[in-house]
């Protein structure tokens, strides 16, 4: 390693600081955990700089559905858009950084997107907050400028399901072999993002300066990812896409749900999906937001059991099971029992027709009254 930087001090003297290796890999890992801004979120996105929430260090990853942790990633961060960011740290003196670490992190990501339940990530984050004597909900609100925690975790889960994750190789110096691999992967992979971050250390006169630099954002990679970003859906675009994907009865069912939501809800949230539109009826009671379900333009309704878990009275399992029974009473293909903590989908066609639609909306009339009754 070689090179230096020069600081012009207030007294006019020039201070030379020379590049120096880190004493250990653990030191570099500790610095990243303590100072997440070293991930250079402003370089990743100049218009909307990335902000970071550290879930934990050494987060385990299983290789099967019921398996225990087979590997562990050095750091798991999440940005303000709920994008999980896996960071693997190596010193440049470690020869594995040239090729072996690439397969390692790709293997982590391939299994994490399948075998990381959102509840596991939340538990690790809350445990880390407890150790640091921080309030987890306040950290999320601070990161997202006021977003409700359950909405945030819903985004994280959706991004995991889609494979929308960020893989970061971090070192004091990124070798040329790794730089070429990262640039190639970042141009080819979508919606995943692959980056390297070089954090050089300069020392002089009892001072240390850390200088991060993001590698991998070639103009071709940025152009591909920009053209694949989602759009803001609205009523007309949603119904147009739904008409192309389904039939007239299904479209009429979606319109009826939308009209019901306009009269019953505080607002309707429209999605920004790349290939699928969605709207979510939301009502607010005692300053708590209740997202009921998502109607999707491919012809499905996603039931938000997962978010119900944090809102009374459906934070009680018995109450969610009561809702599950009511929904299953009108469905030909029932929602499985284990789905009361997940986001199960039913088809719009399964609730189309006047009788079934009225029963479905009646169930959510009951849902609203139950919320109002206990609060």
Automatic annotation (TrEMBL):
InterPro entries given in the database record: tRNA_endonuc-like_dom_sf
GO MF annotation terms: nucleic acid binding
Gene3D superfamilies given in the database record: 3.40.1350.10
Organism superkingdom: Bacteria
Full protein name: Uncharacterized protein
Species per Swiss-Prot/TrEMBL record: Niallia endozanthoxylica
């Amino acid at each position: 390693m070689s090179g230096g930087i020069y600081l012009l001090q207030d007294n006019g003297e020039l201070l030379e600081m020379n590049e120096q290796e880190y004493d250990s890999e653990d030191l570099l890992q500790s610095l990243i955990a303590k100072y997440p801004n070293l991930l250079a979120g402003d370089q990743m996105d100049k218009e909307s700089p990335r902000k970071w929430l550290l879930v934990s260090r050494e987060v385990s990853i299983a290789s099967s559905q019921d398996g225990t942790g087979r590997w562990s990633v050095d750091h798991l961060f999440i940005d303000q858009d709920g994008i999980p960011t896996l960071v693997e740290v190596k010193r440049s003196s470690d020869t594995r950084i040239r090729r072996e670490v690439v397969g390692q992190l790709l293997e982590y990501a391939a299994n994490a997107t399948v075998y990381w339940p959102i509840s596991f990530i939340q538990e690790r984050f809350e445990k880390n907050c407890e150790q640091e004597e921080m309030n987890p909900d306040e950290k999320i609100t601070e990161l997202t400028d006021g977003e409700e925690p359950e909405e945030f975790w819903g985004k994280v889960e959706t991004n995991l399901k889609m494979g929308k994750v960020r893989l970061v190789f971090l070192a004091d110096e990124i070798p040329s072999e790794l730089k070429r691999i990262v640039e190639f992967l970042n141009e080819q992979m979508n919606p995943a993002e692959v980056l390297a971050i070089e954090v050089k250390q300069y020392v002089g006169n009892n001072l240390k300066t850390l200088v991060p630099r993001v590698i991998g954002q070639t103009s071709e990679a940025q152009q591909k990812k920009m053209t694949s970003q989602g759009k803001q859906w609205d009523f007309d675009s949603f119904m147009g896409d739904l008409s192309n994907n389904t039939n007239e009865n299904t479209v009429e069912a979606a319109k009826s749900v939308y009209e019901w939501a306009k009269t019953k809800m505080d607002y309707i949230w429209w999605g920004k999906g790349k290939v699928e539109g969605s709207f979510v009826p939301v009502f607010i009671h005692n300053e708590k937001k209740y997202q009921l379900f998502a109607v999707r333009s491919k012809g499905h309704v996603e039931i938000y059991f997962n978010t119900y878990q944090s809102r009374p009275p459906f934070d009680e399992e018995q109450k969610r099971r009561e809702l599950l029974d009511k929904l299953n009473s009108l469905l030909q293909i029932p929602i499985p029992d284990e789905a009361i903590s997940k986001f199960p989908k039913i088809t719009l066609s399964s609730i189309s027709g006047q009788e079934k639609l009225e029963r479905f909306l009646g169930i959510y009339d009951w849902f609203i009254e139950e919320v109002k009754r206990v609060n």
